């Protein structure tokens, strides 16, 4: 087995700093500011979603943030997928945004709830035709015998639904993470990073600095 050694792979973080006075009192507004700052980055809305099963065994994957409302951060997926099945038994999750060129990351933790069927219908109908057809064809996270078999399933869906409207699969739904904790991280020189954490306090949020 080939050895992989990155013990000497490193770089300095010198792009910026983060002070408590830089932050909005509302972490969702601060999230919006940093998303705006990252708007020209590839896949700026990509976030790592970490879930755990009933035995607390974690798994993680990238999903795309689609919107933020007053209650939390929202995305769409299939509830027959691995993440969907894990959220059924353990409805808590963590999200991670990381923008390497900006030397920034945001961690968000909280409980996950389902969006309404009407919200899922509205967003599903707004997707490109090909994405809708693929969502109908795929039993997400389930085994398939070959790429050819998958493409045959898609061809059958394309023949059945050559144009909108396409009914949304019942298992294709929206999720919302209701935040209980935010951490805003700005890389600093010599690994003395800035870490500012929001936790609930009354009707608002308390902000504390953590050691790096």
TrEMBL record:
Residues 1-21 are annotated as: Disordered. Residues 43-159 form the Pyridoxamine 5'-phosphate oxidase N-terminal domain. FMN binds at residues 61-66, 76-77, 83, 105, 140-141, 185, 195. The keyword Oxidoreductase applies. It catalyses: pyridoxine 5'-phosphate + O2 = pyridoxal 5'-phosphate + H2O2; pyridoxamine 5'-phosphate + O2 + H2O = pyridoxal 5'-phosphate + H2O2 + NH4(+). It comes from the Bacteria. The keyword Oxidoreductase applies. Pathway: Cofactor metabolism; pyridoxal 5'-phosphate salvage; pyridoxal 5'-phosphate from pyridoxamine 5'-phosphate: step 1/1; Cofactor metabolism; pyridoxal 5'-phosphate salvage; pyridoxal 5'-phosphate from pyridoxine 5'-phosphate: step 1/1. Catalyzes the oxidation of either pyridoxine 5'-phosphate (PNP) or pyridoxamine 5'-phosphate (PMP) into pyridoxal 5'-phosphate (PLP). This is Pyridoxine/pyridoxamine 5'-phosphate oxidase. It comes from Ectothiorhodosinus mongolicus. The gene is pdxH.
